[in-house]
Design a protein that fits this description.
By secondary structure, the protein is mainly α. The chain has one domain. 62% of the residues lie in helices and 6% in strands. It has a two-stranded antiparallel ribbon with strand order 1-2. The relative contact order is 0.15.
Length: 143
Amino acid sequence: MTLRIILASLGYRRIDADLERKDKDLNLRVIPTSVHGILDYLASGVNLAFPALLELDDEQAAALIPRLDGTAGAAYSLITDYELGLLKVLPMPVHLTFDAAKGALLASSPWLFGFAKNGPRYWLPHVLIGTADILAAMTTKTD
């Protein structure tokens, strides 16, 4: 009985012996690849600039990681098969996987590399931009 209530609350209904989802049209992938491309290059620029703007250079890892993230993001954006890619050899689903992975690394880096203890100025930008990378990867169309 409880399982039936949970499944119904998730939008499933019973058809014969199978369960079918009523709202098959639910799709979280709403960002067009052209918009994602703009976000890629914008985020790369932000990642390259914010360590200097926030004066994070006294903590080497706090400054280096976003710069590497920005450089990597711009590099694989240039070879991605989308509107703003130049070489168009990297498929969009692979690009989005890279975005999610680098976002997770950037968001967790203050604790992985031990600079979170220096205060919010050191960890908050990493978490915000990393989380934005993950969200963009989850919500961008792949076609």
